[in-house]
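Inputs:
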Amino acid sequence: MKIDPRNPADLSAQIASAIRDAIVGGRLIVDQRLPSEAELAEQFEVSRPTVREALKRLAAQSLIRTQRGATGGAFVNRLSFPEAYYQQITTSTLLLSMNAVSFETACEARYALERACAPLSAERRTADHLATMRAEIHRQAQPGLTDEAFCASDVAFHRALVDGAGNPVLSYQLAGAVEAMQPLMNMITFTARDRARIVALHQEIADAAEAQDGAAVTAGLSALEVETQELAQSVFAARAARLDAKARLGS
Amino acid sequence: MKIDPRNPADLSAQIASAIRDAIVGGRLIVDQRLPSEAELAEQFEVSRPTVREALKRLAAQSLIRTQRGATGGAFVNRLSFPEAYYQQITTSTLLLSMNAVSFETACEARYALERACAPLSAERRTADHLATMRAEIHRQAQPGLTDEAFCASDVAFHRALVDGAGNPVLSYQLAGAVEAMQPLMNMITFTARDRARIVALHQEIADAAEAQDGAAVTAGLSALEVETQELAQSVFAARAARLDAKARLGS
DNA sequence: GGACTTTAATTGTCTGACATTAAATTCACA
DNA sequence: TGTGAATTTAATGTCAGACAATTAAAGTCC
């Protein structure tokens, strides 16, 4: 792990990479303390600020945590599920917002992934998961609800459905799909959305989950996908029509 | 974006967070240049090393890239799909290796996610995807293949199946599931694995994909999951038996 | 023996400097 | 006047040394 070729480019990135490899490769284990910054500087034959930049890179990926004081230092961090969720959501959000992904593609991926959880969730959902879903449906039916609150409740509903599968790895993988698509779908469809229709579909899904009918849950999700795609298409069509009218007015 | 409370803790983390929020919130757009390190230091009223630590944190998340020279600086980076893949795989690998996730849970999640792609892939796979799958199957049947090469080929086969869905968002989400589970499953089952059985199942899946039969692809994946789970159970049982024998020997 | 003080180790931050890079500019020369 | 080489300039990359802040452990006093 010591070696650092005389490659003059980006020493801090090289050092970060060397330490990351040691962690991923198991040569540094969870909660193990790294050498102090001064020792690392000596080992790699660089200055302390350079070592610090490398450590900050690792900290940004939640690979290490630092602690001040006499027995402080940098420690290999156990990547917790909440941290992994957060990273997953951030990455997914950026990927979608920066890469001109079509609504259709994103929506298709989202529902395909959620349907993957449907059979498991129908089989294993606890009373608690059902109660959460029912509560969110009830909230969504409130007339005074803001658009933001409705969307947050929508996310919470789907989250409960996904968590119902009782598989934390699956929940982690779905975090991006469920929570990163939300701003995207919300911004596009909230003007045209028929809340009653969505609440009815949610009701259908919750009923199917209660009856432990996986096929029905899957069907409900598919219906929700169709609804969302049609909504988006109508919004896009209306938008195009407006642009077209404006163009004709201008000519 | 300027504000930095007099909170004395972790200035570089606060600055990184402020800039990250500006990027995620769209106030800084792709390829836009950030102020120079000296200007940022002045704005945030900190020293340049502190600013640099903040920028390295963002660079570690591929949120910015830096360029040296007269017109250089830090630029908001377009998060590319390959970068997102890499982060996804790293995060998934660490999450699994550090959190005592059972084989059963990981395997279940992996196949549930892959089944989510099956109907789409059966419908849309190109001749190219089919050719890749066939080629990998052929390679897997070679007698002299090392275990590592067999596993790499296994990953390539599943990757082709997933990419066949023609949905880059789905491919990104599956990167962790397909590529992070590989070392895990490999290390456990490679001793007991019957390659011929796996090749036969792969053949079944490829045939189903060629016939555009989504249900058959799904069934093939489920069969592969059952095979893998049974294999793992037999390995664990054998391991437990060995331990038990050793314990009795010792007493 | 317990509460308090001191000490030492470590990270966090700052200052100032120099090295390196690459684009823009200037200038000599054809 | 046009072109290519040399210079300038602005930025990041790196370094050295220092001090502040924090925290646990060792030491000390009652």
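Residues 8, 36-38, 52, 66-74 of chain B lie near DNA strand D (CB under 10 Å from a C1'). Flag for discussion at group meeting.
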